[in-house]
Amino acid sequence: MNQEFAVSDAPRPLIAGNWKMNGLRAALQEIETLRDAVRAGHVGSVDLAICPPATLIHAAVQACGGVLSIGGQDCHGAPCGAHTGDISAEMLADAGAGLVIVGHSERRTDHHESNPTVRAKTEAAWRAGLIAVLCVGELREEREEGRETEVVGGQLAGSVPDGATPDNLVVAYEPVWAIGTGLTPTCEDIAAIHLFIRGELVTRFGEAGQGIRILYGGSVKPGNARELMAVENVDGALVGGASLKATDFLAICACL
Ligand SMILES: O=C(CO)COP(=O)(O)O
């Protein structure tokens, strides 16, 4: 691949905010601030998404004025049924969501979600017409043992269904030990694992694998976003804490 092709063919970056279990209705002001910034032309060539708690999805869709995507943080694999407390991908789509995070490490840990479960959730997202933002990443001890590619490779093989394309899948590499800790891998380490993920996607999906966006997540802040986003095969970020305030989120977006 020559340089010109690589540059023109690079996926458009995506900065996605994961609000986790944060946000009451007053937080919709942050979405309105993001909307106004996009409308005023203050955000460059980058796609924006916010995944608020499910209680705010419908209102967030109304508040965002169609200039950013709103997503869910999880979905059930089934379209409906006797699953108290769960939300289906169809329900998210009905509320106006365009994407859904699946396989976040907090779900894999707190709710014991396995790779086959994450795979079923990804298929559910596709069935409902949503983009799946599928999270992978190793634990601290797995990194210390030098097993990160083995772990991430196993998560990709076990949880990404056949049929992935740039239009239905985004992969988010989130090392568990970097989430909410202020720690980040070195740029060299991020480059290595993103190249590994790119290779796995291309091996499995051919040309489509080149265009599937690979986000980095874990303690992305305005102060470190520029160097993290400049790493090869980093096509944007999945941001937790720094997505709660529009000013921080916009400062991250400005780094692309
Ligand atoms: O888990 C994350 C996003 O999904 C990252 O969270 P922090 O940005 O708060 O580390």
Write down the overall mean pLDDT. 96
SS content category: alpha/beta
What is the class in the CATH system?
Answer: Alpha Beta
Order of helices and strands: HEHEHEHEHHEHHEHHEHEH
Defining key terms:
256 residues; alpha/beta; TIM Barrel; eight-stranded parallel barrel; 12 helices; binds 1,3-dihydroxyacetonephosphate; gluconeogenesis; isomerase; glycolysis; Aldolase_TIM; triose-phosphate isomerase activity
TL;DR of this structure?
The chain has 256 residues and is of the alpha/beta class. 41% of the residues lie in helices and 15% in strands. The model is unreliable at 1-8 (pLDDT under 50).
Describe what you observe in this structure.
With 256 residues, the chain is α/β, with parallel strands linked by helices. The chain has a single domain (12-236), classed as TIM Barrel (Alpha-Beta Barrel), CATH 3.20.20.70. It is 41% helix and 15% strand. It is built from twelve helices and eight strands. The chain has an eight-stranded parallel barrel with strand order 1-2-3-4-5-6-7-8, surrounded by five helices. Strand 2, helix 3 and strand 3 form a beta-alpha-beta unit. Helix 2 (28-39) packs parallel to helix 12 and helix 8 (148-159) packs parallel to helix 9 (187-205). The radius of gyration is 17 Å and the shape is globular.
